[in-house]
Amino acid sequence: MTSNAAAPTRIVDGVELPAAGAWKIDPGHAEVGFMGRHFMLTKVRGRFTGVDATVYIGERPEDSKVTAEIDMASVDSGDKTRDDHLRSGDFFDVESHPKGVFTSTAVSWNGKAGKLTGDLTIKGVTRPVTLDVDYLGYARDPWNNDRTVFSARGKINREDWGLTWNMALETGGILVSKEIELSLEIEAIREV
Length: 192
Known about the structure:
This protein is mainly beta and 192 residues long. It has one helix and twelve strands; from the N terminus they run E-E-E-E-E-E-E-H-E-E-E-E-E. The strands form two sheets. Strands 3-5-6-8-9-10-11-12 form an eight-stranded antiparallel barrel. The protein has a two-stranded antiparallel sheet with strand order 1-2. The chain is elongated and about 60 Å long. The protein starts with 8 loop residues before the first strand and ends with a strand.
């Protein structure tokens, strides 16, 4: 493993990875999304636009850490009525629980991919989540900021966080799926 503190990237076990240090998420270029099913058939997607997060890249990739705070009221599924319902006590209860928090607890890494495990707190309930993460690369923007790009995905059961609102369907099944797919596309800017 080699490292150059001035360089935005380094070679670790023959693979180019971001330099060790703090990288701040650029909320304007971050997609923290989710997907559930309506009537157990239709995919309904949403995202949170208010995200504040920092990725601390360790000298050893497995020593990396992530901390994130999500403004739960920033949920956007493309439908105001649905978004208002998601903000209500039936789901996120943003009046009582305005923030969601993710704090990593473990990272495993192999090449340009890894697993990120952490504690996710929603609506006052904390449960572990594991995400599959891919490092997509590095770019320097026109303003000379060093940017690193990651993609992540995982699945959760929303009921584990007390998000249990639902309706039974006459034909069987339920209105809103319990399983929610998480999808993150993240650009982070190196803090100097």
